[in-house]
Amino acid sequence: MCCWFASSVYLGAGLRTRSPEKKAVIVSEVEKNVWPAVAEGKVKPIVYKSFPLSEVAKGHQLMESSKHIGKILLFP
């Protein structure tokens, strides 16, 4: 069962089709309006699981399975 909270907001931007100028504007706005909240610890990524680089295949397998919620990290 998944829970969604009315106060939660999820936003994303597909940048692939945007011009370099538009991408620069988006990056500038994120740096100005979003990054300070990340730096202050108000916004934190959800880390599902971490793998050493030697187990990259396991991390990729987990990602392909879509059985995770959050980030899959690789570390040296």
Using brief descriptors, characterize the structure shown.
single chain; 76 residues; alpha+beta; two-stranded parallel sheet; 2 strands; 14% strand; extended; oxidoreductase activity, acting on NAD(P)H; oxidoreductase; Quinone oxidoreductase PIG3; NADPH binding
Structure report:
It is a single chain. By secondary structure, the protein is α+β, with helices and mostly antiparallel strands. The chain has one domain (20-74). It has helices spanning 20-33, 35-39, 56-65; strands at residues 47-52, 71-75. The longest helix is centred in the middle third of the chain and has 14 residues, at 20-33. The N and C termini lie far apart (34 Å). One of its GO terms (molecular function) is NADPH binding. This is Quinone oxidoreductase PIG3. Keywords: NADP, Oxidoreductase.
Structural class by secondary-structure content: alpha+beta
Beta-strand proportion? 5-15%
What is the overall silhouette? Answer: extended
What is the end-to-end distance? Answer: 34 Å
Radius of gyration: 16 Å
Number of strands: 2
Strand order of the largest sheet: 1-2
Taking pLDDT < 50 over at least 5 consecutive residues as the criterion, the unreliable ranges are: 1-5
Continuous helix count: 3
Helix content: 25-40%
- Largest beta-sheet characterization: 2 strands, parallel
Number of domains: 1
Give the helices and strands as they follow along the chain: HHEHE
Q: Average pLDDT across residues?
A: 86
